[in-house]
Amino acid sequence: MDGSPASDRQNGEMDWQTSEDTVPSAPITEADARLLRARPPATGAWRDGDPVGERRFAAFGAFRTEAGRELPGIRLAYETWGELSPTRDNAVLILHALTGDSHVRGPAGPGHATAGWWEDIVGPGAPIDTDRWFVVAANMLGGCQGSTGPASIAPDGYEWASRFPALTIRDQVAAQVRLADALGIDVWAAVVGGSMGGMHALEWAIEHPERVDRLAVLCSPPTTTADQVALNSVQLEAIRIDPRFAGGEYYDAPDGEGPHRGLALARRMALLNYRSPTELNQRFGRSWQSDKSPLVDGGRYAVESYLDFHGNKFTRRFDANSYLVLVEAMNSHDVGRGRGGVEDALARITARTLVLGVDSDRLFPVDGQRRIARGIRSVVDDDVVVISSDFGHDGFLIESEAVGFHVRRLLEE
Q: Which of 244, 269, 285, 340 has a CA that sits 20 to 30 A from residue 314's CA?
């Protein structure tokens, strides 16, 4: 093992500043557990006054949602890499997943709880080569890492909290369109999104086909199905039934008194959807966490400790209200809504498109990507690209070599 980030990811090495989404599952050590003994904050959101890190901010005026609710003003936090060409024709938009943020690459440090989540894909000489492309990544509207969301301060001086309006995927893309306009980018050379970010990418290419030259949709569906809404619903309920959630009004709670139990449980449920049975069974088997037997001594199985650790860790970088808003936005996803159905909507896409899935993905199975690929007229290889991986849905974040190969193909066409 060479100690590089890529090597660490493939060998299952974990550390405090690595997002669990981007590495294989690994047993939890006592040293890991000691890092989380302090009481978690009421919210893990980035707040005004916190270190800015590499973020930039773009502020906009009044924003009306699809449902008719109005925010008097919104802000998007974003990061960029590379240089925009004089003709402004080399811009690439990267759209993050549910619990991601704008920090695609770069170290953890003040303002950034975790290191970049796509380091092997974005950077000098990487598949999305920042020596060639001007790369933009924004924290989605409703998020909790600098963009306007429930943890943001409303005009009355208090957090939006439970008053924050419901959002749709289309609302979030409308906010991203404002950012593109502010940056002076009329056409994206490519829009790249995985998971929830792929939902945004599809909406960009359908609603604004003239502004998207290339499109990459990774491990995303054309609609959020009943099965997926059902899986999401139990995560939402886990947060809402935590007494310390207090109907979403918890921001003044002292450390350890916020809704961390409900949020951690929601994260544990989600991780089971993100990973495959093969990976969990091979990684953990029936191993114990310690020398105490789970059968008679009150011990625990190693996989239980893995889920507990990452649920607890998650509460220190995310916000419970944002989780509700973003999952509900994901539930709204249906490219065919109001457009004559899925196939009619996909037929609007003119971008050269990469559609990629992972064969072990049980959150957004490959059938969904096949439907997307069938509906778009200009698809790489005229079909979905399927990666074989034991890592399930998170394979698009972990299988850097395979994903990078296909993303590079798209950009070099």
A: 285
Distance of CA 245 to the CA centre of its chain: 23
Q: Distance between CA 306 and CA 235 in Å, rounded?
A: 18
**151 φ/ψ angles, rounded to the nearest 5 degrees:** -80, -5
Catalytic site residue from 25, 102, 195, 220: 195
DSSP 112-144: BSS--TTTTTEETTSSEETTT-EEEEEPPTT-S
Tell me what the mean pLDDT of segment 309-337 comes to. 96
CB 322 within 8 A of CB 150: yes
Largest CA distance in the chain: 69
> Is 195 annotated as catalytic?
yes
CA distance 262 to 222: 29
pLDDT, tens digit (0-9, with 9 covering 90-100), for 277-314: 888 888 888 998 888 889 888 889 988 888 998 899 99
Q: Which two tokens stand for residue 206?
A: 């359908």
How big is the chain by its Cα radius of gyration, in Å?
A: 20
- Summarize pLDDT for 255-280 with one digit per residue, the tens: 999 999 999 999 999 999 999 888 88
Q: In the annotation, is 361 catalytic?
A: yes
User: Could you give the angle at the alpha carbon of 134 between the alpha carbons of 129 and 136, nearest 5°?
Assistant: 110
Q: Is 162 a catalytic residue?
A: no
3-state secondary structure of 31: helix
Task: Read off the DSSP letter of residue 104.
Answer: -
Q: Identify the active-site residue in 310, 393, 394, 400.
A: 393
Token pair, residue 411, equals 């950009």
**7-11, 74-78, 217-221, 320-324, range with the lowest pLDDT:** 7-11
Given 334, 361, 390, 394, which residue is catalytic? 361
Q: What is the DSSP-derived secondary structure letter of residue 55? A: -
Count the Cβ atoms, other than its own, within 10 Å of residue 61. Answer: 9
Q: How far is CA 152 from CA 247, 318, 406, in A?
A: 17, 13, 38
Region 156-161: mean pLDDT is 98
Classify strands 352-358 and 214-218 as parallel, antiparallel or unpaired: parallel
